[in-house]
Amino acid sequence: MTESPAQTPAGHPVLAGREHESAALADVVRRLVELTVTTTAPAATTREAVRRLEAVADILERHVPDPPLPKTILSEPVDNAAGLAARMPFDNVIGRHNPLALPLDLEFDPPRALLRGAFTRAYEGPPGCVHGAVLAASFDIVCAAANIVAGLPGPTARLEITYRRPTALYEPCLFEGQVEAQDGRRIRTVGRLLQRDRVTVEAVGDFVLLDHAQIARMSERTR
């Protein structure tokens, strides 16, 4: 689906004037996360790295607002993948500015929502495989995005995950989500994960339809 830049809402206000620098910071910390779970540096080298990183953390901590700003801004309707990602820059799954996120790439392909990416060692559960909780979080996002594609946004009420086979690290993943049924305010959305054209995980979720005013109030409560 080709999306017009004119349709993409503005991003998170906390990134105004510093979006590039924030993304670079997230990339560096993301690299540190990966190195933390893979390095075998000697004790002295590790101590020196900790000392330097603590100094960097002290610098950044001086600029944390009190109370902290919300991670997600959904006070206005969003109808495309770029707009949704821009409003969720610190999300744990698709957040470009959150080093805990891979991040996965979000795409709207009506009637589906898609997530793409290849998980690295930091997301390992069983040896050589992606952690099941990481996959569940990814399905929560792709199913919620599918609801937006269908014009039926709302929070998750239930999410059931069925693991068919292991999902390998470093292999391209394709998550698909699509609304299956609507019964009043209750939305049933299904998803699946493919690697090399084989289904490794399936998901079924129930979501509660909210109008824009209700979603805006939820967003305000996180401020």
TrEMBL record:
InterPro entries: HotDog_dom_sf, THEM4/THEM5_acyl-CoA_thioest, Thioestr_dom. One of its GO terms (cellular component) is cytoplasm. One of its GO terms (molecular function) is hydrolase activity. Its EC number is 3.1.2.2. It holds the Pfam family 4HBT. Signal peptide: none annotated. It catalyses: (5Z,8Z,11Z,14Z)-eicosatetraenoyl-CoA + H2O = (5Z,8Z,11Z,14Z)-eicosatetraenoate + CoA + H(+); decanoyl-CoA + H2O = decanoate + CoA + H(+); tetradecanoyl-CoA + H2O = tetradecanoate + CoA + H(+); dodecanoyl-CoA + H2O = dodecanoate + CoA + H(+). One of its GO terms (biological process) is fatty acid metabolic process. It is an enzyme of class 3 (hydrolase). Keywords: Apoptosis, Cell membrane, Cell projection, Cytoplasm, Fatty acid metabolism, Hydrolase, Lipid metabolism, Membrane, Transit peptide. It is found in: Cell projection, Ruffle membrane; Cytoplasm; Membrane. It is a peripheral membrane protein. Residues 128-199 form the Thioesterase domain. Belongs to the THEM4/THEM5 thioesterase family. This is Acyl-coenzyme A thioesterase THEM4. It comes from Thermomonospora echinospora. The lineage of its organism: Bacteria, Bacillati, Actinomycetota, Actinomycetes, Streptosporangiales.
